[in-house]
Amino acid sequence: MDLSERKLKILQAIIADFIRTAEPVGSRTLSKNYDLGISPATIRNEMSDLEELGYLTHPHTSSGRVPSEKAYRLYVNQMMNKHELTMEQKCSIAAQLNDNVTELENMVQRAAHVLSEITNLTAFAMTPRKDLDTLKYINLLPVDDYTAVLMLVSESGKVSNKAVRFDKAVSEETLRILAKTMTYNYRGKTLSEALTQDIIEDVQTDAEAMGMLENNIKPSFVKTLEDMLNVNLYMDGLTNIFSLPEYNDLDKARMFLEMVNKKEDFTKTLINRENGVIITIGNENQDELLSDCSVITATYHVNGKQLGKIGVIGPTRMQYDEVTSVIEYLTDNISKAFMITGGDGDDES
Amino acid sequence: MDLSERKLKILQAIIADFIRTAEPVGSRTLSKNYDLGISPATIRNEMSDLEELGYLTHPHTSSGRVPSEKAYRLYVNQMMNKHELTMEQKCSIAAQLNDNVTELENMVQRAAHVLSEITNLTAFAMTPRKDLDTLKYINLLPVDDYTAVLMLVSESGKVSNKAVRFDKAVSEETLRILAKTMTYNYRGKTLSEALTQDIIEDVQTDAEAMGMLENNIKPSFVKTLEDMLNVNLYMDGLTNIFSLPEYNDLDKARMFLEMVNKKEDFTKTLINRENGVIITIGNENQDELLSDCSVITATYHVNGKQLGKIGVIGPTRMQYDEVTSVIEYLTDNISKAFMITGGDGDDES
DNA sequence: GTTAGCACTCATCAAGTTTGAGTGCTAATC
DNA sequence: GATTAGCACTCAAACTTGATGAGTGCTAAC
Question: What is the pTM of this model?
Fold first, then answer.
């Protein structure tokens, strides 16, 4: 059933007011502050209908109305106007973002910062998944007789490394052979393929060297690959929630911070989201703990291939229009910055 | 002036009680729960003296006494008994810490975790400063015609890298020469020396190559060096403060979290602390913002040279004895683990 | 269909009251 | 002279009470 023009107008006014004030909205306030041309009593009747239809709720009998998740969903889908950023805002954002960029990690981190500053919410930014990246070469650099550094370099220029310890002294010559063997076996494989593929025996390597490969190098190799595959998650504006009336209760603030601090869980949640601009409201979120939050994410791309995400998390009462615009502007900027030369030679500092 | 035996006993009891309950301690409670053998009235007289001497304070006229910073200082210096960890505690800590260690970063991070779990405070762990580490080799790995990865390897096995973009296409041969020149110039220099030393002209490099060194590589080189020098700070148990009555006020909790979130400032504060087990109470802390916190840090060493720190931050009311024991046990463990082979081939994942 | 009017509800706030844990002082006791 | 019992006093915290006001639903008039 479609809502009448008037009901839509009233609902929109309630949502706007509630997003601004965080207070339940009453019929009198509505008729006074919004140019609806009808009396409070009529508004009450309409609100009663809207409540029956599930768009509004009532904290208690004699309080104003609060938009439900269903209302926010309707608002986001149909009623939200495109919010244009001012020229100053755009310039300021671009300036902060592009100042002396050399690395994606850096820029992405700054995006989270800018986003949290503008929206006054908790922002996050995720570096791209490297699924399609392939191994280019593998090196073993001697440190002392028993220790070396295993170094992997990918086609896109990502470098990652870990220490390897050997049971016995190993010569530089042996290290070179081992590295050569590994490069021969893994070159051109994607990172995820390399994770599953076993080290193949090679004519040049003897039994002893093979043992080292299996027992000493393999664990570090796997960990390094996982490091390269893993996305990094930057968060900013965690303490912004203290300014929101929704979290002016210690328990709620605590729960929020504890949830967000579990970075691994949160990263998984993010990875599973679709690409593009995605808004999930309250219980639409998979994660039980996010059931009274809204999450907005958008995707940026590096070289048109690898995809990363940035976004915000906050109460269901948020400025969906403004936040969405800012996020979109940020992702556009990042995508542009890393389009031409494919400068994704990021490291993990 | 020295305190009488009895005053010391009373003060100790007050401190013990206050650390446990966080409530001002009254004379009746004291005489009931502690075997002091004197009546509340006598205790009141003694407490009055102790207050005059600056060891106790009075939140308001008719409330119990609270230990002052001076009292905590006295307690820590003279009255605190050595708290022995139980065998189970030790085993549990050692197990969590040493499970499958390959890297210092990893172990240090886990130390912060264990520490925050046991103490229910906010714990932190700082990786060692690399001042004494020297450069071993410098490499430039081609990514595409305009991009390379600059890689530095130090004597201790630390590897760090950053992307370099060139104004024009650069051949692999050129990269090799550039890397060779840099290695020649910087090998054996400590990281901090390398930061200040300029690139010296070399017979093998022509003017064009020199220009690239200056304009394209230098910025990345400096950043990479700074990355290698920089300590990493891991924090854990941030939300533990929500369980403390000291922070059951939103503003206080917020201030604490905002302070601790400024990692750079906090790192500087930590670096400036002396080595060994250091306890600073309230206003003894340099940082204004820490004026109602106590901080305990201890130092671990890697190979007897590089020094890192771990510690906790919490209200001045904390279990100084227990916390100190745990921190000491942790630093001992880390130092032991990284003593023999000097396996500090950490990276920055 | 719309609106004015009215009785009712309920969170919030301020003012007053009670309670109890604490103190300091004084006079009696050891 | 040191210790203690007794008592008047203080003050935060918890509870009570009543007023206020923003809100509702319902009904009857427009």
Answer: 0.88
